Amino acid sequence: MADNVVTHPTSTAPGSQWQPRIIGFLCYWCSYTGADAAGTARMKYPPNVDIVRVMCSGRIDPELIMSAFSRGADGVLVCGCHIGDCHYISGNHKTMARMPLVKRILTDLGIEPQRFRHEWVSAAEGEKFSKLVAEITEQVRKLGPLNWPKLMRERGVGHGMDLKAWGE
Amino acid sequence: MSENGNGSKLKIAKYWAASCGGCDISLLEIGPHLLDLIKVADIVFWPCAADFKYKDVAAYEDGYIDICFYNGAIRTSEQEEIARLLRKKSKTLIAYGECAVDGGIPALANLNTKEEIFHAAYLENPSLDNPNGVTPQPITQCEFGELEIPRFYSQVLRLKDIVDVDYEIPGCPPQADRVWEAILALSGGELPARNQAVKVACRDKSVCDECPLEKRLVKIKEFKRPHEVKPEPEWCLLEQGIICMGPATRSGCDARCPTAGMPCRGCYGPSGDVIDQGTAMVSAIGSLLDASNEERAHELIGQIVDPVGSFYRFSMSSSMMKARK
What we know:
The structure holds 2 protein chains of 2 kinds.
Chain A: H1 9-12, E1 22-27, H2 31-40, E2 49-54, H3 62-70, E3 75-80, H4 91-108, E4 116-120, H5 126-143, H6 148-156
Parallel strand pairs in A: 1-2, 1-3, 3-4
Helix pairs in contact in A: 2-5
Chain B: E1 10-16, H1 22-28, H2 33-40, E2 41-45, H3 54-59, E3 65-71, E4 74-76, H4 77-89, E5 90-96, H5 98-102, H6 114-124, E6 139-142, E7 145-148, E8 152-157, E9 167-169, H7 176-187, E10 198-199, H8 207-210, H9 256-259, H10 277-286, H11 294-302, H12 307-311
Parallel strand pairs in B: 1-2, 1-3, 3-5, 5-9, 9-10
Antiparallel strand pairs in B: 4-8, 6-7
């Protein structure tokens, strides 16, 4: 795992307005192809979701979601094939069971549930994907920056916390 | 066991920071081996058992202590100061017990802010008699002059967040057999100091790996809490719907709790190369639910009581998020 903190180029440039930075984990067989379809059809949607392509939504270890938030992401989007469509038969059944639990944990940790979204997007649903990205971007924009690394720095780094442990 | 290179006895220190004292007891649990230990080692600092003062430690020359076991997490400036002092005075510094390694039970306080904790402890608690609402201040002026108490940090930290640690012995408390093996290895020179916080006195795999209970490969149909059900003996507790942290927890304890019919609480921290014990447990549970549609998955997940407190019970300070917002 890379040690760098997630920062948005536009958010650090002087005089620029803050832009939400959202990490999207998309499964290769349906959702990434769906995002591709949105692009091929030249649909317009906000550029705020950085897509990480994975082979199956069932391999999205919830640790990756926590990792994104803890390194400075403002939101996380998880997309996989609809139930019944999984290329690996039952990978997305695991996603279906894990994601509500991830959402509960995030909520208990004080992170607004709107920052995390889990949806099924098929290869044909380019329009659904573009709408989804527009929605989560707007939701996160309303909530403002999360900036977890800054929060943690304020809580104890000054007392001798090993900065490396915080991904800096 | 051998003495140190100079022909003199090994010098051993033990300190307690934010901990319950169980780690001190666990060292005594090595039983008759204590006599073997005392033959080759001298205790030079152990607040729980021997009357040495901080100034005695400060007077030792640097590197005087051969092996220092530091148990407890770091919550106050005093604990940080002593961690730095002991690092300077010790050749080998060992984080002993889950609090020093991953935050342990004290790190559950990271789910509340410092202000909330002070409010509950000094202003809200029903057994309090504090009409003037006095709360502890780092510095107080009184007729004798200025009094200073240690500062309370905003978060519970691990020993390795503050100083370089040579080895870590996880567990709440570490099991005596494993501790004795580690002491033998340390005193025999097999574990040289190397500042990499290597975990010893434990194994890499999960508790399930050494658990004798039978897996019947059935899915979880309902979650139950340990007091609500009498588990069927010899059968995997997680499959019976009792939250058992076995799949996400480091082994080394010989699966004592599940063997005795109680679910694993996760006290050895995350296994292998896993960083975040809680989400490792989310992964495991996700693969075990008997749910064919989303409504059913939501229903089952809703039956789990306090997922954060249960899944991160011992490892909040080592988790990805480390605290509540």
